[in-house]
Amino acid sequence: MECSLVSQYFLSPADRWMVSHKFLVSPDGGSCSESLSSVELWAETATLSYKMDYEPSFLRTLFSLILVSSLLDCVLSEVDAFPDTKTWFENLLPSTMCIQNASIESVYGIMFDAGSTGTRIHIYSFTQKYPDQLPELRKEIFESVKPGLSAYADIPEQGAETIRGLLEVAKDAVPSSHWKKTPVVLKATAGLRLLPEKKAQALLSEVKNVLEESPFLVPDNSVSIMNGTYEGILAWITVNFLTGQLYSQSKQTVGILDLGGASTQITFLPQSEETLEQSPLDFITSFKMFHTTYKLYTHSYLGLGLKAARLATLGAVETGAVDKQIFRSSCLPKNLEAVWEFGGVSYRYGGIENDYGKGGILEVRDFERKAIEVCDHMEGFTSSSPFLCMDLSYITALLKEGFGFKINTPLQLTKKVNNVETSWSLGATFLMLQSLRISN
Ligand SMILES: O=c1ccn([C@@H]2O[C@H](COP(=O)(O)OP(=O)(O)O)[C@@H](O)[C@H]2O)c(=O)[nH]1
Ligand SMILES: [Ca+2]
């Protein structure tokens, strides 16, 4: 009966090599599974497995001997303890079978993060120690460009060119012998989520073409817009992996707050059942990682990233950028006027000069609306302005019922005109000068 003889080397907890031989079940259904021998050897690192078809009854003793000898050969050459000593088993098996030469398999992975403010490439290299286990992270090479893909919404080919440039970094970082088996994927986040569907798809399609022209492995669905739930979970995995929490027994994980340009995510592992029960259903996601199931709370708030919040504060979300329009805010430096670009759009913005003095136009109903708002939320105004509700109510009543203004009567509120106080004081001074014949 033909059995497959598989030899595997396992790293023991004490950093020694355990060699164990196993016979597997043959394809014709005969049972020949058996553990034959186990030999402990000192060695540096890595793992090796290979497979040969043999008649086990004939060869197993000899095979064990050869394996042990070749391992000894590797160990002796590694420690260089006997440089001039020749052994009968030297070079019996190809040197690639030496643990330190052959068994460390390098694995690479290329991930593009197409964010709303920039595109980044992460080139990870891993070592695959055990064929059936996750690779071990060795190193990351990182590069980025600005602006992000969404800035090329109307010129998708040019957007894709930014990816081509970053792929050159990957070609330098990954040995050419590994290009074909190194996967490359691009995931876009909130910048593309906010674009009209057609424009986003045009960008993704151009990017896909560029990836396919590269020498790397392009899996199905390699270019996509990631949903906010994944974005939160994946960032949580990254940080908890890097901080060692995913491997620790204590399961003391860390929560993540990711403030992007166009969206923001919160992700954590709830400690109490109450949190799970009280959370909206779609804020809780279960997934399995490293043999453990995690039930995470995660949510992505689209439009509440830092840059999107700027647009909202400036009142530019609805209107978009209009030529010559300057978006002003008292939260910007008073004398500032500048242009800011986001998502391929230029926004003129500036501070408000002497806002306090210039005042503004309000209608009677604005007083009324504010009075209702403040009086309905009294708890929020208690310490700083205790009379606000009362004062606004009085002013509204005075304007409406007292003076009889209509609710849409505009009123100009002015503290200063041309930088001079609008008090009776100036008028009084004119009269004073006139009465003293200092002026006519
Ligand atoms: O060195 C940096 C790089 C990025 N950012 C900010 O980090 C966020 C990155 O957001 P991203 O482009 O990923 O947008 P998303 O698509 O995630 O909303 C933006 O607010 C950037 O301004 C930063 O503060 N410093
Ligand atoms: Ca981001």
UniProtKB/TrEMBL annotation:
Entry-linked InterPro entries: GDA1_CD39_NTPase
Catalyzed reactions per annotation: GDP + H2O = GMP + phosphate + H(+); CDP + H2O = CMP + phosphate + H(+); UDP + H2O = UMP + phosphate + H(+); IDP + H2O = IMP + phosphate + H(+)
Sites where the protein binds ATP: G261, A262, S263, T264, Q265
Keywords: ATP-binding, Calcium, Disulfide bond, Endoplasmic reticulum, Glycoprotein, Hydrolase, Magnesium, Nucleotide-binding, Secreted, Signal
PROSITE patterns: GDA1_CD39_NTPASE (PS01238)
Range of residues in the leader sequence: none
Family label: Belongs to the GDA1/CD39 NTPase family.
Function text: Hydrolyzes nucleoside diphosphates with a preference for GDP, IDP and UDP compared to ADP and CDP. In the lumen of the endoplasmic reticulum, hydrolyzes UDP that acts as an end-product feedback inhibitor of the UDP-Glc:glycoprotein glucosyltransferases. UMP can be transported back by an UDP-sugar antiporter to the cytosol where it is consumed to regenerate UDP-glucose. Therefore, it positively regulates protein reglucosylation by clearing UDP from the ER lumen and by promoting the regeneration of UDP-glucose.
Subunit record text: Monomer; active form. Homodimer; disulfide-linked. Homodimers are enzymatically inactive.
Protein name stated in the entry: nucleoside diphosphate phosphatase
Organism lineage string: Eukaryota, Metazoa, Chordata, Craniata, Vertebrata
Gene that encodes the chain: ENTPD5
